[in-house]
Amino acid sequence: MNLEVTSVSVGGFGANLRPRGGRLPRRERRVQLLKSALEVFVAQGYHAAAMDDIAERAGVSKPVLYQHFPGKLELYLALLDASCDTIIDNCRAALDATDDNKLRVEAAVAAFYSYVAEETGAFRLVFESDLTSEPAVREHVERVTTECADLIGHVIADDTGLPTDMARLLAVSLVGMAQVSARYWLTETAGIPRESAAALVAGLAWRGIAGYPLSDEIG
Prior knowledge:
The chain is mostly helical. The chain has two domains: 11-70, Homeodomain-like (Arc Repressor Mutant, subunit A); 83-209, Tetracycline Repressor, domain 2 (Orthogonal Bundle), CATH 1.10.357. The chain has helices at 26-48, 51-58, 62-68, 72-96, 101-116, 123-127, 135-160, 164-188, 194-209. 35% of the residues are buried.
């Protein structure tokens, strides 16, 4: 049973857009600008990226860009918010896909690997941001761990009978394991297929979590 959750392009930025130039409806223009901004931020990082670069990439004037986003930070936060929502939604979908907790672990880990493997490179905004000194950015980044751990923690607590704080600690550990190992896999272990890498890490996570059974019948 394949329960891998494939991440979608962040905020729909990967969708086909009309050719540059001409007048677009406001919503379509915003999507176009976010897509262009994502490309620039991923390639250059926040500090090196300029609004001029983003406007040029989008094929619009800077005043048009500023009509939608008052500044570079607001534009970055809009992208970051969409990226965080995608990861959290993928994690939720993984947990909702089955009642089998072993398969839930496999799907949750696979969701992180799928997201990291996205060609957009959007994961770099969340996990490798060069702007974590900015409180608003740090709050967004921490939201991924917090909300994914909340989702997973409820499942662990129900399955193991552990107190909420202990179940949450295990959930945070699983989220950290998934995202760190996924990033390592992407840059250092290209010879391992994504599905195999995710399954390997999920197996390690499950062996640990299964060590806290609610009853002898589990694990």
